[in-house]
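Any chance you could type out a protein's amino acid sequence plus the matching backbone structure tokens because I've never seen that pairing?

——
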Amino acid sequence: MDFFAQQARVRGSSRRLVALFVLAVVAIVAAIDAAAWLAFGHHPAAGEPAASNLPLLLASSGAVIAGIGLGSLFRIMSLSGGGKAVAESVGAVAVPADTRDPQLRRLRNVIEEVAIASGVPVPDVYLMADEAGINAFAAGYSASDAAVCVTQGCLDNLTRDELQGVIAHEFSHVLNGDMRLNIRLMGLLFGILVLAVVGRKVLQFGGGRGSRRGSGGQVLLIGAALMVVGYIGYFFARLIQAAVARSREALADASAVQFTRQTDGLAGALKKIAISAEGSALQVANRQEVAHMLFGEAGSFNALFATHPPLLERIRTLQPGFKEADLARMAAGMQREAAPPAQANGPPAAASGVSGMPGLPLPPILTGVLAGGVAAAAPAFRRVATVQQAMPASLSEAVRQPESALTVMLALALSLKAELQPAQRRIVADAFGDDLQRAVQAQASALAALAPIARLPLVALAFPALKQLPDGRQQTLLRALDELVKVDGRVDINEYCLARLLRIHLSEASSPRRAPVDGVKKLPAARDSVILVCAIVAAAGCSDEASARRAWLLAMQQAFPGEAIDWTPPPAAWQAPFERALDDLDGLSPMAKELVIQALLRAVHADGQVSVEEAELLRVICASLHCPLPLGEDGGGQVAT
């Protein structure tokens, strides 16, 4: 499943959502205007002069529009904290990074694997501890402020493969732009519902002292109209919510298959929802507000308001030939034998392939996802798990707490050259004090055993802890990193990637609502930027200019087929032009970004291997363009060291 195509579909969903919402508002305004005209308008008797009702109708329309707009704005602003705010609004609690609970440790391990494999920072992890249903959601404005929330029912009932399938489903929402749309939808629903709430309050307190024929009766008429029209509007808003969500959930299921490279895990989770007494239902009072972003239905299935396709339809899409009677046999089998205890740690289980009736073709939505031509994602998870297991235990523990994570990031930027270390120690001491400087030096010895390819995955693991640092300390960290990497008068690729990646993620996490949205530019509009970025990546992965030129030409053939473009080696001072080019490319449309990534992959694979520098540059470019790392390009496999 193509994440760039999904981002384009989400853009289309956003346009349709706005259009439907505008139509709903117009209908509400017209209905309230009619009530205002009946209650307060001029209705001349025979022979009386007619007076204009235009000022009344304009005032009524303005008040209704303002009420809906302010209500929506208030709700969206209340969620300005991003994914964390949404998770806490449904009573979820954060899962500590250093948790020793086996269930929670398994959950964090799975989320960390999927995050690193997809090239995004590890999100905040939340648990709805009082919810026995099997459900989950991802929320936020961007990958940098995302939160993944699961119910206790997921932990109690799902195997590791099944949990991985659910988490992969939620990560597809993180990567394809659904999360921002989901938060906007929450605001729009709230804005319409505000009218009904106001109408109910008017009926309770308004017109109490007036007569039915006087002003009190008129106020009551307006209150009744607000309440009735508000609830009718909310009814249609719920239909909009369901329609938008259903169209994306099938795509998210297919994306989860692409991530995990097998269908058994996700299908198993859906089957357990089907046979569980609790299903996927939530008990929290405001469950309908987040219904469109959940893994399963928030309550009992209702075809009219369903935010997901029917369970059996989802299962049969994954496993053709599955029959409803199989659920009864599965339920009986689960009652006869207790499930084996889940393993909290260790690499993910091997992909078990596609199950279902042999000989039946896959549905169109999965065609190509499990066929050749797409990098296998399950091996990517295994490589990520191998990288994590190879990390020194002291480092794995250190990156889970804010201050020690800061220490590790500074230690990553230290040079191995003895002549540069005194100057770097002074930079750290001036920024953070002598005690932290000594801690950084001590941490540097542990980093000596770290595989080079594990540097940026370590940054992804540290990100949840780094976000907890005060803003001032985050900015001091970024300034210190800039000084550390420039202490010898030059910046190598590894140093640059470390500083750039942290700056992108920390800046977006501190201001979630300011995270960039999808651009609209076509590829030719950013031609020079594509040429420069591809040249820098080609030069980073090749030992001589002739090889770099060949890799670059392959990239140009991919991006601009048939065009004759002259090779120009990247400048010695490449960092500033590179950053400007990345900012330019971030304004491209999703489909144009896909072409850029395909061109870069041609350059990276030109010599048949991926260098550490190429893997890190690719990870940073994808983060800068706000798109996922191509599956299988996590750098954990065929990397030249």
Summary: The chain has a mean pLDDT of 80.
